[in-house]
Amino acid sequence: MTENLPRTSRLPGFYQRSLPERAALIAQWAGLDPDEQGALIGITGLTPVQADHMIENVIGVYALPLGIATNFQINGRDYLIPMVIEEPSVVAACSFAARLVRDSGGFTVASDEPIMIGQMQVMGVENVYAAAGKVWEMREELLNRANMTDPVIARFGGGARDLELRPLLDTPAGPMLVIHLLYDVRDAMGANTINTACEKLAPMIEAATGGRLVLRILSNLADRRKVRATCTLAPHVMKTETMSGEQVVEAIEQAWAFAEADPYRAATHNKGAMNGMDAVCIATGNDWRALEAGVHAYAARGGRYRSVTRWQRDAQGNLRGEIEAPVAVGIVGGATRVHPAAKVALKILGVKTARELAEVMGAVGLAQNLAAIRALATEGIQRGHMGLHARQLAIAAGASGDMITRVVETMIAEGQIRLDRAQALVQQFKG
Ligand code: MEV
After folding, report:
1. 385 belongs to the catalytic site
2. Pick from 32, 41, 33, 104: which is nearest to 71 by CA?
């Protein structure tokens, strides 16, 4: 493939190309060498030997589809987004929403400094306030000690920033003092750094307070490390075959209001945003459980679980979307630099810092949420889903090549999208 690609993520017809053509286009976009290309299609990907060094009791490796969401423009820059996910429709929906946003000026993103919170639990002190005072007196000493844990992070301008003292008086185990260590982890996700720092501080705190340190661990409610992404869509880009743009905008506002008011809906609404954020998190070798824990805890910060996004009309009648959530991800350390496909995913994204990665993920979450609620508030999501579901059934029934399309089209025409029907059709077409 020798096409000269302009540096745009708008790649019309990308989805209609064959897998090798798509892979070649992306290789050209990102300047991938043959080894890196091999990592994407599983030839030189994660080996069992590498896997054996990552976790325990390894017996193999487990592959998932890696797709590319197109059309993203974020703070004026074009991105192609690698997404690892098993669920059909997500990548297409994300690309579609990014296209709508692109036509309205793209996403605007911002983020906090990459500050993680480490928690230390002090038990057995007579007076938690007096103990807090003692810890505060040695604040400088503790921050200096914490700074010694990771010289690399310190060299890049990170390090311990502050302490917070949180006496918890009424717990099932009685009063306790909780100390937060705020630590700028720069381009790391930071779990190891922060856990090590907390463990290093423990003896000093025990000596000063006379208490006993029980837990020393990061908090996944990384609310010092939030991203914010926004977009504004003119009503005319929102119209469908059967609804005007104004009607769609109003329906989306109502869909968001439902999630804002009802935790049962908010869980599903936020899951839609996480479809996008998790897929990038996994593609880049990051800890998606940490991301999930943080986002959902943040969604419940006011005492009731709410939407992490907001969709409302502005004074001009445009639809304004916004997401705010903690996103603790890194571009160094962990699997990000060990998993061959994660390294390539980061190269395709072209992000230079962990903050930039988090900001991209914020935009992807907002796009995914928009795609879901737009579909739900207009034609419903089943029509699009059923085609893809039928395709999966056809493949599961043993169809390959052109037979997949024949099986899918027959099942859709008959209105019978079931595995037993797919199996029967495969037998019939083979015969
Ligand atoms: C499905 O994976 C995600 C949705 O349920 C999200 C939503 O309901 O907003 C479609």
Report:
1. yes
2. 104
